[in-house]
Design brief:
mainly alpha, Growth Hormone, Chain: A, globular, disordered N terminus
Length: about 475
């Protein structure tokens, strides 16, 4: 069967520097919108809880319905982008995300909101890995590519941290539905600019779709996260949890065996023999595990224990958000010059210390300790995020850019979903939250980042992502 020739990314501009910047802006619009929705909802949780009459477990599903679909489908969408076109998958994902956002904003019940969040997750899974794969081809020069990936990673981290801050202002001024309406104009700009400046790219030569691998990967990730969430709610011995946990093991083992013997696997497990690729992805997952759990727990602490308004919560978290905004021009430059190991390890280590200090705040409220801890967390994440993304993506050859991006984003989003799932039940139940539970969640988050620090230092090669 004949295959289409490989197509390299092109842009509709005669000036290559200008066109490359335009490509970066186009994908960053969609990236910001998608990543924002992972955390912007946190400060709306209290309003959603009161308006739709849902408990803490229900709030977990408002967060995780999005995160489960997002994380479990990215491997599939990255592979489809490599095969059929990264621009096509990116645009389709942004359109679907906008439709899901409109449905969220108009939701009249908790069930409708969770379903619409799932639609958002599917759209996000299609768009996000392909946005990074587009950049992999748009910047062939290693130094410029490191800077572009640094900007991409910086915007990604910025949107995650900015979510609670922006959400606080939106919820306070316009209600919780506004955190979804904001996606419509941002997504519209992403679509318009992408259609103007990004041409199609793909790498179908000698490959075909691995349908069985895609189904098994999706079901394994989805059932794993379902098990963690509902195990705390229904009990670990309940029938649905036992079935889901058993299926997680069975489908995971089958997926591993199928992919090992596939001539053209969706996920080639030999990738993980490359220490930098394995270490960067593991550290990325641990980083998001800790940060998502912390944002879920700390937002509820500020809202439900301290009884702060959403606007005030946003102002508190602005301390963590600002380092990302200020460091965007520098993160990629640092990685491009010095490699990924040192900024990744130093950044994760600093954030881990900040989280461990923050875990002391609920029992002994102290504004200086709280704001100092948040600032240290933000500075650390601003340093580590670009380095980890650049290390993971540049560790594989360009023709597997979609797969490399998908694995890295899957590890980060699955880590985040598992963090909320694991510690959400610890934080509280019903309509209440527990201070010891909040402390435990933040302590566990700090320990996760400490482990990520060790993996970054031990496995990422010192010169990875540096030119030459």
């Amino acid at each position: 069967m004949p295959t289409k020739p490989d197509r390299e990314v092109e842009v509709s501009s005669t000036n290559s520097n200008t066109s490359s910047v335009a490509v970066l802006i186009a994908v960053c619009f969609g990236l910001f919108m998608i990543q924002l929705d992972l955390t912007v909802v946190n400060v709306a949780l209290s309003s959603i809880q009161e308006n739709l009459q849902v408990g803490v477990v229900g709030l977990q599903w408002v967060v995780d319905a999005y995160a489960i679909l997002f994380s479990s489908l990215m491997l599939t969408s990255g592979d489809l982008g490599d095969l059929f076109g990264r621009r096509k998958l990116y645009l389709s994902g942004v359109v679907l995300f906008i439709l899901g956002s409109v449905a969220c904003a108009a939701a009249s019940s908790y069930e409708v909101l969770v379903g619409a969040r799932a639609v958002q997750g599917i759209g996000a899974a299609a768009a996000l890995p392909n946005s990074l794969a587009i950049l992999r081809y748009g910047f062939p020069d290693a130094r410029l590519r490191a800077r572009a990936i640094g900007w991409w990673a910086g915007v990604s981290g910025l949107s995650l941290i900015a979510g609670p801050t922006l959400g606080g202002f939106l919820v306070g001024a316009f209600g919780w539905r506004s955190v979804f309406w904001i996606n419509v104009p941002v997504g519209g700009l992403a679509i318009w600019l992408t259609m103007r400046v990004v041409a199609e790219s793909s790498h179908p030569h000698g490959r075909r779709m691995d349908v069985l691998g895609q189904v098994l990967a999706t079901s394994t990730l989805a059932s794993l996260i379902f098990t963690v969430i509902e195990g705390q709610h229904l009990g670990w011995k309940s029938f649905p949890v036992i079935v889901a946990s058993a299926w997680t093991i069975v489908s995971g083992v089958i997926f591993w065996r199928v992919e090992r013997h596939q001539a053209q696997p969706m996920l080639d497990f030999r990738f993980f023999r490359q220490p930098t690729f394995a270490g960067a992805n593991a550290a990325s997952g641990l980083m998001n595990f800790g940060m998502f759990a912390m944002l879920f727990a700390f937002s509820l602490y500020l809202l439900r224990v301290l009884r702060l308004t959403p606007e005030t919560v946003g102002m508190h978290l602005l301390v963590m958000f600002m380092p990302f905004a200020l460091s965007l021009p520098f993160g990629g430059r640092i990685t491009g010059r010095f490699g990924s190991r040192y900024p990744a390890a130093i950044g994760l280590g600093a954030s881990a210390v900040g989280l461990l200090l923050l875990s002391l705040v609920p029992a002994r409220p102290d504004d200086a300790l709280m704001f100092g801890s948040l600032l240290l967390i933000g500075l650390g994440l601003a340093t580590a995020t670009p380095a980890l993304v650049a290390a993971a993506v540049s560790a594989l050859p360009p023709e597997r850019a979609g797969a490399a991006s998908a694995v890295n984003n899957t590890s980060r989003q699955a880590g985040g979903a598992l963090g909320v799932a694991l510690f959400g039940g610890v934080v509280g139940a019903g309509q209440s939250v527990s201070i010891p539970g909040i402390e435990t969640a933040m302590l566990g988050s700090g320990l996760a980042l400490l482990l990520g620090t060790f993996l970054s230092w031990h496995f990422i090669h010192p010169t990875q992502s540096a030119p030459g």
